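Homework help board

Subject: predicted structure for assignment chain

Our instructor gave us this sequence and asked us to write out the predicted structure in token form, then describe one feature. I got the tokens but I'm not sure how to describe them. Can anyone check?
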Amino acid sequence: MVIMQIIETDNRYMTGTLPVAERQEQAARTTTAPRFSETTPVFSYLFWKYLVDRFAALGMLIVLSPLMSVIAIAIRLDSRGGALFHREQVGSRGKNFMALKFRTMYDGNDDQTYREYVEKYVRENAPYQVDENGARIFKVVNDSRVTRVGRFLRKTNLDELPQLVNVLKGEMSFIGPRPDVPFAVAMYRDWHLKRLNARPGITGLWQVCGRKAVPFEGMVRLDISYINRRSLALDLKIAFLTVATILKGDGS
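My token output:
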């Protein structure tokens, strides 16, 4: 129910049917989202989320290590370069960290086109392209930089598995806003920065709400809505919806 309310509000905002007063209130809403620390109450949501994240990440790394080893070998055999991709990301409260993913692109590729699109995406809510049905796609598609193995990993979301290490280290969570790159965050407006008031997640509302069809400011509003409403129940709903999204196999 909560997820449907968030989606409905966001859709009304993007289609212009949300009253102007509500739009202004939504954009101006601040959040005083707490963060985990050694003094966090034992029975609080953040305490249990932090605990579950750590133990679940450790267990999944142990169980999935054979699969991850096979993926690493396949990447190395498919193209030149290492199996892992390291990229600096902006996490909770603007703290930078190195996020891990399986490498899905050719080593040494030129990212200028990607950077130019990200700038238009953040500054103008611009789509990457419009398909034959007139639908706007807010994601880089048909990227020639992606390897054969990389296309499979992206379609199945298996390229995200190394981020379990980031969760284990406490830099990320399973559920939360997606981390962004520093050059994109540098273009944020003040209210966009509210999405950084939580530990970034491997998945979140954006992923289960059809991220390819969501413009940048729509993603930000979803993230802020999640931070304001987050609970273990909402996290579980997002986790189940994430599994359903992955099974669709469209790389969302």
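Reply (TA_rk): Your tokens look well-formed. For the description, you could write something like this. Confidence is low (pLDDT under 50) at residues 13-18, 23-33. That's the kind of observation they're looking for.
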